[in-house]
Amino acid sequence: MNFGRGPPVVLNVGGTRYSFSREVLKDFPLRRVSRLHGCLSEQDVLEVCDDYDRERNEYFFDRHSEAFGFIMLYVRHGHLRFVPHMCELSFYNEMIYWGLEGSHLDYCCQRRLDDRMSETCTYYAAEEPRGEPGGGPEGKGRRPPGAEGGKWLERMRRTFEEPTSSVAAQVLATVSILFVIVSMVVLCASTLPEWRAPENRSMEEQSRYTAESVREPSGIIEAICIGWFTAECIVRFIVSKNKCEFVRRPLNIIDLLAITPYYISVLMTVFTGENSQLQRAGVTLRVLRMMRIFWVIKLARHFIGLQTLGLTLKRCYREMVMLLVFICVAMAIFSALSQLLENGLDLGAKNKDYASIPAACWWVIISMTTVGYGDMCPITVPGRILGGICVVSGIVLLALPITFIYHSFVQCYHELKFRSARYSRSLSAEFLN
């Protein structure tokens, strides 16, 4: 097609018509529209648009007309904002269709889009597929090869990943919680002096995985718990859809951090011997043994409260960074002033607790975030006035971002609660059937 002559080009988007000269069409800011200039046949045109009228030289696009109107405002004035009362993701799909990206949006709309995409990805990450092979009208009575195996793997995945998706998932979650609780009780009890008193064992000896310690009740319980967690992790890895995504998930990383130290400690005992210098030092083994405390975080798979906390921190990382910046700036200012007033000026009586700015930082941080421990306090009148200002400033600075974090926490809680109720309804239907 020759776009150098003839009548103007007409774009019909959802019933709204736009007319352009052919020269404007060549360098049009929207990639899909500019592709029309390079079309050499009607077949090429139909790959870009939905229909074409040769007589009127009109191109039809079955898209949202109001959204395209806002996109045209961006073409004319250089500012792209969301359509009021329209879903951000729907408008983003229109942008992608016409060849725009999220970076073309104004900054405020970019924030809305990022938050919306974060919420949607989190909410639908563990949802079941919208449709199953052979589930449509045209696929009834006929399933593709491997459909039964895929359905079985999907059921296994939901059993291990979603504790409320079925009766078997609830039983599995209950057993896993019991193992976590037993493991934590044994770990806490092993640090009590009464636990080691009968055999007069030190912490270094308690940290070793010798043949005698494995035969003890605590060693047997620990080995059983580790075996259960290892088997659970392996099965979840096998039935996962995306192995790379499985390894990158935070909860799975925590599982590895909690399981791996046990095997490392056993291997160190086997290869270094029970009386080696490394074993007698015991520091490495104690650190590895205490890493089992990460098993507590495994409870986040089964409790909405911990999931809500993690999701809130993920969505409010900007507010959390802002809060930390506020505290750091205030800490730098007040620590320098308090050190100057309490120790830097020659007032006859110097406060030894404020001998340096780093030492004063401790007083500032506990004064801004708590009521203070009383281990160090100003003794001069200017220092006490500064301390009062520091406390009041801490209350104000901490209160500013809290509102945003609170609203995000409530939203995350309702989303996860709705998702849990949805799986509970599925569980009730399965139980009745």
From TrEMBL:
Pfam families: BTB_2, Ion_trans
Membrane topology, record value: Multi-pass membrane protein
Ribonucleoprotein as UniProt keyword: no
Taxonomic placement: Eukaryota, Metazoa, Chordata, Craniata, Vertebrata
Keywords from the named record: Cell membrane, Cytoplasm, Ion channel, Ion transport, Membrane, Potassium, Potassium channel, Potassium transport, Transmembrane, Transmembrane helix, Transport, Voltage-gated channel
GO biological processes: action potential; protein homooligomerization; regulation of potassium ion transport
Annotated organism of origin: Xiphorhynchus elegans (elegant woodcreeper)
Keyword Ion transport: yes
Compartment(s) of residence: Cell membrane; Cytoplasm
Location of the BTB domain: 7-116
Residue spans crossing the bilayer: 167-192, 219-239, 251-273, 293-313, 320-341, 353-373, 385-409
Similarity remark: Belongs to the potassium channel family. G (TC 1.A.1.2) subfamily. Kv6.3/KCNG3 sub-subfamily.
Positions of region (Disordered): 127-149
Chief localization: membrane
Assembly and interaction partners: Heterotetramer with KCNB1. Does not form homomultimers.
Protein name: Voltage-gated potassium channel regulatory subunit KCNG3
GO MF annotation list: delayed rectifier potassium channel activity; potassium channel regulator activity
GO cellular component: cytoplasm; voltage-gated potassium channel complex
Gene3D superfamilies for the chain: 1.10.287.70, Potassium Channel Kv1.1, Chain A, Voltage-gated potassium channels. Chain C
Entry-linked InterPro entries: BTB/POZ_dom, Ion_trans_dom, K_chnl_volt-dep_Kv, K_chnl_volt-dep_Kv5/Kv9, SKP1/BTB/POZ_sf, T1-type_BTB, VG_K_chnl, Volt_channel_dom_sf
